[in-house]
Amino acid sequence: PHHLLLDVTDEMRVMQDEIFGPLLPVVPYDDLQQALTYVNARPRPLALYYFGYDKAEQQVVLEHTHSGGVCLNDTLLHVAQDDLPFGGVGPSGMGHYHGHEGFLTFSKAKGVFVKQRFNAARMIYPPYGKALQKLVYRLFVR
I need a surface site. Which of 37, 101, 111, 129 has the fewest CB within 10 A? Predict the structure, then answer.
């Protein structure tokens, strides 16, 4: 069974921890800016759900909030999209899971530089003042 929680305050534990259950705290607001101010004054959420078909308002929500993911006019289905990055930001988690972004999250790129026996860079090593160094200086350093 689902439960709506009315008249919640920030001091309540349900408003301090992420909720992974059938609880929905209801926080009323008078206009969109008040709602955005409320959201932005708190830790970044795992997901943000906006309901409304006004394209300008949707854009304002997308541009003026930070969250792990956003659903417009739906909830939870973003986690079911296997090629859409899913994951939180800040205290809500980090990284992305699913698709290419998930591969990058769970991989560690290892940079490898190999210098061969012939080292062309040696021509510009000290002592300075050789002809090639003077040419490089004249062409690239101004």
Answer: 111
